[in-house]
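Example 371.
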Amino acid sequence: MPDIHFDKEKGSHLKLFTPGPVHVPERLLKEMAKPNDTHRSKPYSEMHQMAAEGLQKLLYTKNECLIFTSSATGIMEACVRNLLKDDEKGLFFSIGAFGDRWYDIGVSNGKISIKEGVEWGKAITSDVAQDALNKDNYSVVFIQANETSTGVYNPIEEVAPVIKDSGALLCVDATSSMAGVKIEVDKLAIDVCLASVQKCFALPPGLAVCSISEAAIEKAKQVKNRGLYFNFIDLHKRHVAKYQTPTTPPIPQIRGLTAQLDYILNKEGLEKRFERHEQLGTHTRKWVEDINLEMFPEKGYESNTVSTISNSLDLDISKMVSLLLEKGYRIVNGYGQLVNKTFRIGHMGEIQIKDLEKMLKVLADIIFEIK
Ligand SMILES: Cc1ncc(COP(=O)(O)O)c(C=O)c1O
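Predicted structure in complex with pyridoxal-5'-phosphate:
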């Protein structure tokens, strides 16, 4: 491993092609360095409102969009605690490590949790969803849009209607897709659509966001022991009344989020941003084919924000990652049970095609050297 250390003076010089946290552009770092008023002030509320309204546009929804001082896992836990009564069943679709995590959250909170999955690399199709839903009555269904470990994008547009037809509430973990892939919350009737901001938003970690439906709020009112910090009712009440949060939020991060939403919506434009991510995915998959590697996901379900690549050339992945680090780029090994069997290239946030091309060229040279 190259000898890389914490650099107090300059910070990291690495170019991150990771599935989060990702590179944060200078303009956002500068934005976050601006001074702020307190979280109970009018300027704060105005800023919070701008962020919330920007999120509504990003997610094509009229639902309120809440801001959490946590990473995405916090909202995943909030969904379980706020939406599932102790005698109700939650169905957790899992196609990888983050689906497993949501199920583990259900179990560890003492909820009746049922996991349904497919072989890693495959997706939850509407048929798989329907078969699972036919087995029992579920009150809430939990599913990833993009599963960051396997690099599979579940066909959420075809699966969501099947889930909603069952009468269950639908929670979607869009952590590694929100702000990179189009998710139309109202059209799909998603009750909670959540993400953290260190991925496609290209902001530093520490903040998470979600849209929440009226039905989810009404349901939460009936659920006991929702806890305090991640209580949907308290968060929603404070949000609607004052555009504030019940506890002190990371104000500079929210300033950054507001600026980034303005950039996404009004400078780059939503369609262009989604297209760019699609091109990043397509370009990476073409490169994989060109150098005789194989994608891990089943064809047709590959993610456009993170590519999980099978180690079909039997490469020493640690060595490959190390050699790439020496050239100033970071990619990552496979996640969990996929370590050394796969590696992952993140192409989300502000990465441009030309940045990706440069890195892939360097990586191809390394692969030819070590294979
Ligand atoms: C799909 C997915 N869900 C959940 C998480 C957990 O996010 P966080 O680390 O922000 O809690 C991640 C993180 O990589 C993820 O990719």
